[in-house]
Amino acid sequence: MKVDQVKKLHQKKYRSELGYCLVEGEHLLLELEKTTIEGCQLFVTESHADWNSRFRKTVIGERQMAQISDTKSPQGMVAIVPMDALLASRGGQERCLYLHEVQDPGNLGTILRTLAWFGGWRCLLSPGSVDPFNPKVIRSSMGAIFHVPIELDVELDSLSQRFERIATLDMQGAPLANAGQSSHDCFVFGNEARGVPREALAAMQATPYTIAGCGAIESLNLASAVNMCVYELARG
After folding, report:
1. Tens digits of per-residue pLDDT, 91-116?
2. Which domains does the chain have, with CATH numbers?
3. Strand residue runs (E) in the chain
């Protein structure tokens, strides 16, 4: 791929059209090199020309790097990665986490990092959710996006057809510690501001759990709630 095409990958419509996303920086590229993903192309500046990579490497100038970089201070290393290699087909054996219309790239990246840390999870994203191939998501995932199976455009009303036991968080639910003793197939979390439509949760007969707190504030950050939930499930 040429530099002019790589620049377009900053925009979702071109990522979808060309089938690639951008991965930038030494840490993320080291994580990428550990995977079995093929078909990547690496762009480096002269100062990184000796970087040892299994991918096809192209040396470009500092000015060109600034054009394709998504950060204010380019690190001199950018790879393009086929998005199909990061998507999962249905039917895996992992426990599933479903995110309904999640909007914040930092939240999604942090959630992917948590799922990768504990392992054995896949992430299902509803239509209208933030693009997981947004460079901000990829950076905040710290490479976890390479290790967590992701499904896109999973409709909320399809979950009850796919999973027998679904759980969610609710202030009136049972203690979260109880969830670790149960064999739920899918845990549902909602939009940062609106949550999950209650009528949809009722239709799928989702079991509610709660994270007990002192009540000094109204709610937890979405990523924090997911972190606590996944940790509790791992303990159970």
Report:
1. 778 899 999 999 999 999 999 999 99
2. 3-85 (3.30.1330.30), 95-235 (3.40.1280.10)
3. 20-24, 41-44, 56-59, 77-82, 95-99, 121-125, 150-151, 166-175, 186-189, 207-210
